[in-house]
Design goal:
The protein has 266 residues and is mostly helical. The protein has two domains: 137 residues, no CATH class; 64 residues, Alpha-Beta Plaits, CATH 3.30.70. It is 40% helix and 5% strand. The longest helix is centred in the C-terminal third of the chain and has 31 residues.
Amino acid sequence: MSRIEWNRQGNAGCLKGKASPYFPAMPNAISHRIAVKQIDACLPQTQCTQCGYPCCRAYAEAIAQGKAGINQCPPGNAATIQALATLLGTQPMPLDPRFGTHAPRARAVIDETLCIGCRKCLDVCPVDAIVGARKLMHTVITADCTGCELCLPPCPVDCIAMLPDLAGHARSASSSPPSPASGRGNEGEGADSGELWPDYTRAETDRWRALAEKRRQRLARARPRTATARMTVLPPAAASERIRAEIRAAVERVKAKKARRPGADS
């Protein structure tokens, strides 16, 4: 099963509270003397959900409660596993293949000539790294993209591609050598001076954590207003159908545009 298929199928069950059958629990619950934020500091903050939890913070909480193993983070890979093992006083273990494999750092790029402005990618980006408006071109803020790939499945015209993030690799390569103990500090500030991951800098992961939390708070504030609006004024069925029709028409235009491209299959 591919990574995207797993996100669509396996992770959907997790987010409905059915995670326990899929995740190897720690032998004993970890003492809460080890703060969740210390565990969270060992995670690369890509918010990719490959670990089976909706965000890095939720995975950190599950580890602290003894409900998840330390080897469920493909982006963090061996560096995260070693840092967590050191922090928790346990033995490192190989990355659990059920949660995916480590891949080189990548970032999302939108083909702006094909984008139909449907906003579906904006709704799923965990760090609000995509900007745009309905019926207008969308684009990705390169520095904020974590490479989570969550924007790929909902795109109706497949105008998003994951490309190698060479700039990110260059930033990481110019940083200090990796330090397994660097996850021992307080959230965002308490890490040692050395970088933990070969693919990500501490400054990047701290920023992604802050962006994810900012998005969470924004959505929490929006929910009461959305619920009130739905109770008072339900959108007419005709308006919903009009939106769906606009998307279908835009998809057909993109298909026609792709067909006219040189080298397209006849």
